[in-house]
């Protein structure tokens, strides 16, 4: 369906807002955080622009998370023509601020001691932003202006549950890898890297399918 964003129908902008947020947080943010959390000892031999492969992949996914979140934030303000005093707006604003600051927290390079603090802030604020974003999507489903079908609750819950199960698998693989020990060859990937890659592929395919299904339901008349 071709949509003219210049039409004065606020529903179109609301749906664009929802579309951007679903892609950003269900797909890109989930994969980006997975790569940073579980793949630092994978793709060891690969280097891009002088850096490790996992770091490049993480930055690419999180850049699109940041970009789509910013676009979605701007779009909803255009549609609403100002501030709306409800839980979804408040949580959304906090999520946007945390998301907007994430690249700054990740890029700052102060002294070694301060760098550890900034990294901790980067990780904690990133996880907090994800939790708030997911929570806010559930809050959005209760808004009358969103006009979302009730079936989205189940589909969205399934997407979150699927991602949670994937993280359980990753943690099991990480535990097994730690028990096996660090490879003696520093250029060799950690144990069970192949299974981590397979699990990542399953996660990507699954989250992509959930993303498409959620967006299709969002735009369904």
From TrEMBL:
It is a multi-pass membrane protein. Its cofactor is heme b. One of its GO terms (cellular component) is membrane. Its EC number is 7.2.1.3. Gene3D superfamilies: 1.20.120.1770. InterPro entries: CYB561D1/2, Cyt_b561/ferric_Rdtase_TM. Its main location: membrane. It is found in: Membrane. Residues 1-176 form the Cytochrome b561 domain. It comes from the Eukaryota. Keywords: Electron transport, Heme, Iron, Membrane, Metal-binding, Transmembrane, Transmembrane helix, Transport. GO terms for molecular function: heme binding; metal ion binding; transmembrane ascorbate ferrireductase activity; transmembrane monodehydroascorbate reductase activity. PANTHER family: DOMON RELATED DOMAIN-CONTAINING PROTEIN, OS05G0565100 PROTEIN. This is ascorbate ferrireductase (transmembrane). The lineage of its organism: Eukaryota, Metazoa, Ecdysozoa, Arthropoda, Hexapoda.
């Amino acid at each position: 369906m071709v949509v003219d964003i210049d039409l004065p129908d606020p529903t179109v902008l609301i749906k664009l807002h929802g579309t951007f947020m679903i892609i950003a947080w269900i797909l890109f943010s989930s994969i980006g955080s997975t790569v940073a959390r579980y793949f630092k000892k994978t793709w060891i031999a690969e280097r891009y622009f002088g850096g490790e492969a996992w770091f490049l992949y993480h930055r690419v996914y999180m850049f699109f998370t940041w970009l789509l979140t910013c676009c979605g934030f701007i779009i909803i303000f255009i549609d609403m023509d100002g501030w709306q005093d409800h839980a979804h707006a408040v949580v959304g604003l906090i999520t946007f601020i945390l998301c907007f600051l994430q690249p700054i927290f990740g890029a700052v390079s102060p002294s070694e001691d301060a760098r550890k603090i900034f990294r901790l802030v980067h990780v904690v604020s990133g996880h907090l932003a994800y939790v708030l974003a997911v929570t806010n999507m559930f809050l959005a489903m209760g808004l009358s202006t969103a006009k979302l079908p009730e079936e989205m609750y189940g589909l969205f819950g399934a997407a979150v549950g699927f991602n949670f199960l994937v993280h359980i698998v990753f943690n099991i693989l990480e535990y097994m890898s730690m028990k096996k020990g660090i490879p003696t060859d520093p250029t060799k990937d950690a144990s069970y890297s192949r299974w981590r890659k397979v699990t990542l592929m399953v996660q990507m395919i699954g989250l992509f399918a959930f993303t498409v299904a959620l967006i299709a339901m969002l735009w369904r008349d």
